[in-house]
Amino acid sequence: MSNSVVVLLAVVVVANCAPQGREVPLSPFEGRIVGGHDADIKDYPYQLSLLFKGRHMCGASIIGEKWALTAGHCVDGMTADVLSVRAGSSILETGGQLIKVKKFYAHPKFSAEVADYDMALLELETSIAMTDSSAVIKLVDGKSRDLQGKEATVTGWGTVYEDDESLPSQLQVVEVPVLGDDECRRFYGNDKITDRMLCAGLIEGGKDSCQGDSGGPLVVDGKLRNCFGDWLR
Known about the structure:
Strand order of the largest sheet: 1-12-11-10-13-14
Family: Belongs to the peptidase S1 family.
Keywords: Disulfide bond, Hydrolase, Protease, Serine protease, Signal
CATH class of the largest domain: Mainly Beta
Shape: globular
Domain Peptidase S1: 33-233
GO molecular function: serine-type endopeptidase activity
Protein name: Peptidase S1 domain-containing protein
């Protein structure tokens, strides 16, 4: 983690976004939650675990009974037959509803070399049963420019220590403030931050996100603002 800044780079969810693995495939856009705490799925019922051959790989969000949103890099180079989602469970790789992915649709402008347009829709084979542990998250209709200083909620099962690659069994949550675009660009340059990105995090560090959280939700004011991408260092 950089001593100067820890910033979350995430791809803004818009209303019209339509997304050779290894065991478990690791993305160059690794994300993680550090400095968070245990959470109950009933408080974040939109949270999904995206599994590769039955093992947790990324996070995802419920946006419809048969639809989920994740990061494009989470499904890059894969086929739908090796993917499934788990809904309605706080515990990693057990409980809840296990549903196969029928198809996925990466954003046509997504590239594995860059973080822009890093989103993918997952079409599920069967509907998710809506309960107090499984529910649709509201979407925004575009990127709001008045979010600076607001608290963003990030959830997932990523590693909780920077030097430990093991995943927690319990869902984790962390609250981080949204940073302004100008502040973000001061650290990373105008060419790296696009209109489809949002920065959130602590200038002094201490709260971070880990491998396994990528693709999961970043929520502000009860709405899904982002498909969680990566922590820049």
